[in-house]
Amino acid sequence: MSGKGGKAGAKGGKASASGNEKTMSRSARAGLQFPVGRIHRMLKKGNYAQRVGAGAPVYLAAVLEYLAAEILELAGNAARDNKKQRIVPRHLQLAIRNDEELNKLLGHVVISQGGVVPNIPPEVVVAEQTPLVPLSVRTLSSSSVVQKDLIKEFYIREIKAYKPAPVAKDAHVGAVKDLTTPSLPQPPSLPADLASGLAAYDKAEPIELKGKATSGHEGVANSSAAMEFLELLEADIPKEDAHH
């Protein structure tokens, strides 16, 4: 029977794929685990824009997969630290709040049954670990004690780590070229000098007096003129002055 549409029983549309070829999802093409097709359908239903391109769901799926992997890794570490085999909301809370970037991203998100994160100032933890202050003093809640403890610890660390800067020595500074020891002061006359002086006096020329000429001090002592001169001097000096 002739008519429009060609042969009877023929099917229109695209040709069917062969049985050997398998369909490949967009997630597998992008190398992702999150469903790209489902995210694309949600973007179109949500009326976020008039048109949704083919690359938008792939990009969004990659971002969501990265964030999920990061949070799961940190939560697994928190569960392992608490010696647990299963991740609970408490571990998610600790993982997110202890990470600076995730805490900033999910700062306004409330995690149900996650509890709260203890807020302990770091200076208090350092003060408890330092051995500079006794335990009885460390238990006090006074902030002044903690500040004094920290200042003392930092001061001791700076003293131990201090090293004076090397100073370049000048070639002319501190160089000793010649060292001479100072001589000891000597007295004005020594016995050797006296002996030489007396010997020179004995060898002096004879002195002429009223008596006979003699040489040296022996001639002066034996001369009569010298004796008379001494008697004259003794007669001139009064007795009271002689006693003094």
UniProtKB/TrEMBL annotation:
Record Pfam families: ATP_sub_h, Histone, Histone_H2A_C
Biased composition (Gly residues): 1-12
Keyword check for Nucleus: yes
Keyword Coiled coil: no
GO biological process: proton motive force-driven ATP synthesis
Keywords: Acetylation, Chromosome, DNA-binding, Methylation, Nucleosome core, Nucleus
Cell location: Chromosome; Nucleus
InterPro entries named among the record's database cross-references: ATP_synth_F0_suH (IPR019711), H2A/H2B/H3 (IPR007125), Histone-fold (IPR009072), Histone_H2A (IPR002119), Histone_H2A_C (IPR032454), Histone_H2A_CS (IPR032458)
Record domain Histone H2A C-terminal: where: 100-123
Domain Core Histone H2A/H2B/H3: 18-97
Entry's family note: Belongs to the histone H2A family.
Complex and partners: The nucleosome is a histone octamer containing two molecules each of H2A, H2B, H3 and H4 assembled in one H3-H4 heterotetramer and two H2A-H2B heterodimers. The octamer wraps approximately 147 bp of DNA.
Name the UniProt record assigns to this protein: Histone H2A
Species this chain originates from: Clathrus columnatus
